[in-house]
Design brief:
By secondary structure, the chain is an alpha/beta fold. The protein has six helices and ten strands; from the N terminus they run E-E-E-H-E-E-H-E-H-H-H-E-H-E-E-E. The chain has a six-stranded mixed β-sheet. Strand 7, helix 6 (185-198) and strand 8 (203-208) form a beta-alpha-beta unit. Bound molecules: adenosine-5'-triphosphate and magnesium ion. Magnesium ion (MG) is lined by residues 44-45, 177.
Amino acid sequence: MIEVRNASLVYDDHGRQVFACHDLTLELKDGEFLGILGPSGSGKSSLLYLMCGLKTPTSGEVAYRGRTLSSMSEDERAELRLRQFGFVFQYPYLLGYLSALENVLVGTPTNGEAKKSGISSPWTNGWATEPAARELLTGLGLGDKLHRMPFELSGGEKQRVCIARALLGGREVVFADEPTANLDHVNGVAVVETLVANRGSGSLVMVTHDPTMLEKADRVVTISDGRLAASL
Ligand SMILES: Nc1ncnc2c1ncn2[C@@H]1O[C@H](COP(=O)(O)OP(=O)(O)OP(=O)(O)O)[C@@H](O)[C@H]1O
Ligand SMILES: [Mg+2]
């Protein structure tokens, strides 16, 4: 579904070239849980940004369903990130002035724009989103905290709100960049299990430096100094 072909990503560090990704080739299949493992600074986030179109490779290419991301307009790529992809980051970014439920609904299309994503997921509710958001948060154990503000939630609870936001509507791919890094082991495992169990037929790409978080992965690739080292 997503093909990375001989992609390199070079940053300009005050005139010095830094190869964050070096000639990477990799494919993400429909429905697959792909783990990307590697130490700090190895290029994991950079690879994730290439796969989702947030960054454009310096050389090589990335294609989504046969279409090169760099050939799409900025609007088309934004549409893809908003509708087909979901994101979970290390820090649970929530708007401090909106409740848990409102944070999940932010950015989702209104009923007037209703559109099916084509992904089978319990949360694909024709984008008639509020009931689906409530159901999803309830399924994530936050049914009694829908109206809490972010400062009234623990770190793990905030991360579950972010997961609900990433899953709502049914996404083709959820990209998670170190979603467990700020959590203790038990909560970290719970977050991964939540992502795995609730992604429906969508794919999951998860970046981490902790191999114990990838025990449920279908495939794990290891990245080191911007190069793919092994496929487990
Ligand atoms: N904007 C930038 N400008 C220059 N160099 C950068 C930039 N972003 C990242 N890098 C460098 O690219 C390399 C890969 O960074 P990346 O963020 O992809 O690593 P990572 O594996 O995600 O690390 P971590 O586990 O710490 O998040 C690092 O050497 C980093 O310093
Ligand atoms: Mg990173």
